[in-house]
Design brief:
The protein is of the alpha/beta class. It contains 8 helices and 17 strands.
Length: 364
Amino acid sequence: MQMSKKHIRVVVGMSGGVDSSVTAWLLKEQGYEVIGLFMKNWDDTDEFGHCTATEDFEDVRRVCAQIGIPYYSVNFEKEYEQKVFQYFLDEYKKGRTPNPDIMCNREIKFGEFLNKAKQLGADFIATGHYAQIIEKNGEKYLARGADPNKDQTYFLYAVNKPQLLQAMFPIGHMQKQEVREIAQKVGLATAKKKDSTGICFIGERNFREFLSHYLPAQPGEIHTLDGEVKGRHDGLMYYTLGQRQGLGIGGSGTGEPWFVVKKDIEKNILYVAQGHDHEALYSGGLIATDINWLGQGDTPNEPFTCTAKFRYRQKDQPVRVLPQPDGTFRVEFAERQRAVTPGQSVVFYDEEICLGGGIIDSTF
């Protein structure tokens, strides 16, 4: 016998944004017992004592009052610093470009948050992510959100499957426009609130300035691939593969723009080349580590083909995946790819199903 919805307790991760507000409203409308839970993950008080988390929690409070559900706040600042921020700094120290949102989902939103929700008696948690859990041949899978511009499976691939299967994504089958329209129609306080952008702990601040507070920059030389010195860089951590802006080396050579093509951490040299399509920006494949498998069965040990993304919002690219004896994946591209960046993630798909992914360790 199935439990009636009013006996199913769902704890919603509420951020003070429109997506999580509508998520909570929909679940309440569907008859579930709903509790709102706000996570404070970072102390973002600025020099004037202004903190966006305070405003966000105020929005959560207003929305929960409108919907008629209880709400709580939980502080994960310590856990976030240890599990997400430290990883972020460690990756930059290695000269790589990390994706903290992916780690935040795995460690905090579907890790610490899920544990806290269980303490509140949750049967499920729910978030405002644009993703879906679908059933196919008796097995459940993570699938893309219906709005292709908003699909967030790229950021969810690293969450363990048992944790994902305890989650609901009530707006995953909707377009963003529909979500806004619902919020306006029912008069939610967050209906017109702008979406937050950027990494939560940096917000609107200057990225270089922020990073310099935590990692001492080591300026060094900028070289061409032929070894010619073109100028100086402010510290390798400030540059990412394929970057054009902020090199400060102007024209010369062919007159085409210069792009970052390589970093030599040991010698502290930034390598650049001219032209958007310079050969040095392209690779034919990558090695992925820290694989998290969400497809059917155990992590595969036989080669398979699928599509993949190497960055968020990229179109799917056909790839051949060769599992290696050491647990890494060798991923061969059907077509050479531009600016595939170590530290970022490769995420695998079989049509709408997200098969999992891993961290890009190196390219070839």
